Amino acid sequence: MELAQILAELPEDCLYAAEQDLWLRPEADEVVVGAVRFVVAHGDFMLFYPRPCEIPVMRERSLGVMETAKTAVAITCPISCTIVETNQAAQQNIDVVIQDPYGAGWLYRLKPMAWQDESMFLMGVKEYREWLSAHHHERLRPVEQRHEELPPIDPQNVSY
To answer: 54, 87, 133, 149: which sits with the fewest CB atoms below 10 Å from its CB?
Structure first.
């Protein structure tokens, strides 16, 4: 998929966590979260393993894992929250995320803990388009070549 097409289809009503490759759509007192088309189109995802509902997760900790044919990638939480709901359809068939990442392919419904303080770390669509245009080449490199440390994943630890 071409970058121009990916940029053109970014929803205007979302905020973006660029480093996490996630979009966030505030809805009443919750936030719906999903993977952006850029990472979905280039990630070769096979499975989605979310953390359980009702678990509090602090910003920059793990919300779960997406697996590719080569590796497991932690889904890093862009805001401190409690997981309200996970997309069962995405867990059963990752093609839902691949085909409709901004609609039926959402990943989580979250209840923010510090939305006013933490939403300032998110980007609007215009800012995210500029950021992705400038950083898309480095985002395409495999995780192991980016020298990033993934946060630890411990499904038994509810203190995230």
So the answer is: 149
